[in-house]
Specification:
The chain is mostly helical. The protein is built from 20 helices and no strands. The longest helix has 57 residues.
Length: 439
């Protein structure tokens, strides 16, 4: 692949990665700060209860001064009670993050479409947009005109429902984008977004109609006028689903628009799965691993085997051992490189065989290097075995533990320290919240 080709392809990978990071940020806010908000709320409730007890004790005393103080305390409690009764900060955070997911997705869609038109200019012919001669003459050059046409098209798409957006993209790229298992759930997600944005979460006829049309199966009876909520489990599913849809959409259109960049698309998808394995996000890794296995075209036999290994790791680490074994046995590893034979032995829990292969490799294979033993998700369990520790020391001449100690001592912290938040007011407020939670 030439540098020029890489420059054209890279923005699509960046668009996908940017959205996945946005999903991760939202997910971490929910996991970290919603529980803190809940604790703060409960702490405030406890303080009000204590104030009520105090006010009652003062009011029941015989001296007038105590009764006055008790009355004052009751008035203050009533004011705080009205606020706390109508307060639900955890729910507000979840709603804000849920809606922000779609803002990030809209930005992703715009970036993706821009990238696709950049690598395949002939897509402009499919827009069918009518432009007056006066408008054409108002631009200094043809590139400015193309940018204006594309910007208008992206805005037109964004104003439509997400179902219609996918339909337009299917027509433009002449491909199917909605034939995947979680499409109905994605539609329900988008319709719930509309309810929360415009109807304060009250179920409408349109919500039920659109979801039902796209095949969504309501697990419980949902009626017009019901109020829907966002709980922790739903938010987790939403994060997973949005990451899935963006990755699959980006990958499918990328491969359709630029078949010659199949290797880059494969590398990007494999990288996403690899990162999910590292983060122990096995549900996401399984979802995209199955997608990678179902793709009609893969750039190489090597990548096909990497996809198999990644999916088997995801199955195995999520205790889907039967599926893991079935996928692993679907490939004849006998004619593969020693690297894949090592992977097969590790994933088959044959650690004695894995040790012997490591010794034959003397640590390094065609793809596996010393650092691979430190970082590859493939070695999650094998790294903790006696066979691995013995083979590592024999292969490299020093213990695995000594390397980890040296790496820890040599870590450069400058980059991570630069990312620290230095807003003193914000940090002081956060410290106060932590103190409240710890009391």
């Amino acid at each position: 692949m030439t540098d020029e080709q890489q420059d054209k392809v890279a923005p699509i990978a960046v668009a996908i990665a940017t959205f996945l990071h946005a999903v991760r940020d939202a997910e971490e806010v929910v996991n970290f700060f919603v529980p803190i908000a809940a604790k703060i709320h409960n702490k405030r409730v406890d303080k009000i209860k204590d104030s009520v007890t105090k006010a009652k004790e003062l009011s029941e005393k015989e001296d007038l001064q105590s009764q006055v103080l008790g009355t004052k305390c009751f008035l203050e409690v009533n004011r705080k009670f009205e606020r706390i009764k109508n307060s639900n900060i955890p729910e507000t955070i979840e709603k804000a993050l849920f809606l922000n997911l779609f803002s990030s997705f809209d930005a992703f869609m715009g970036d993706l479409i821009s990238c696709l038109f950049s690598i395949k200019p002939e897509l402009y012919k499919g827009l069918g947009k009518q432009i007056s001669v006066a408008d054409i003459l108002s631009f200094d050059n043809f590139d400015e005109l193309k940018d204006k046409v594309l910007t208008d098209e992206i805005e037109t798409i964004r104003r439509k429902s997400y179902v219609d957006q996918f339909s337009d993209l299917e027509k433009l790229f002449k491909t199917t984008l909605t034939k995947f298992k979680n499409w109905p759930s994605f539609v329900e997600l988008t319709q719930r977004r509309n309810l929360l944005m415009h109807c304060n979460g009250i179920v409408s006829e349109q919500y039920i109609k659109v979801c039902s049309k796209e095949g969504y199966d309501f697990n419980s009876n949902v009626s017009i006028g019901d109020e829907i909520e966002l709980d922790f489990d739903y938010m987790e599913r939403a994060f997973n689903l949005m990451a899935e849809v963006a990755t699959k959409l980006g990958q499918t259109l990328w491969r359709k628009a630029q078949p010659s960049e199949l290797a880059s698309a494969d590398d990007q998808l494999s990288g996403v799965i690899y990162n999910y394995l590292h983060e122990r996000e096995f549900e996401k890794a399984i979802c995209l691993g199955e997608f990678s296995m179902a793709l009609p075209n893969i750039s190489s036999e090597l990548m096909s085997k990497i996809n198999v290994i990644n999916l088997v790791i995801a199955y195995k680490m999520s205790n889907n051992n039967d599926k893991a074994q079935k996928v692993l046995e679907s490939v004849d590893w006998s004619a593969s490189t020693m690297d894949f034979k090592l992977a097969n032995a590790v994933l088959s829990n044959d650690f004695d065989e894995a040790k012997q292969i490591m010794l034959k490799l003397q640590g390094n294979g065609e793809m596996i290097t010393e650092s691979s033993y430190h970082n590859f998700p493939l070695f999650f369990e094998f790294r903790e075995s006696e066979q691995f520790l013995e083979a590592y020391k024999d292969a490299f001449g020093y213990s695995f533990a000594s390397v980890l100690i040296k790496e820890s001592e040599d870590k450069e912290l400058d980059d991570i320290e630069k990312s620290q938040i230095t807003d003193s007011t914000l940090l002081e407020e956060f410290n106060e919240y932590i103190e409240i939670c710890e009391e």
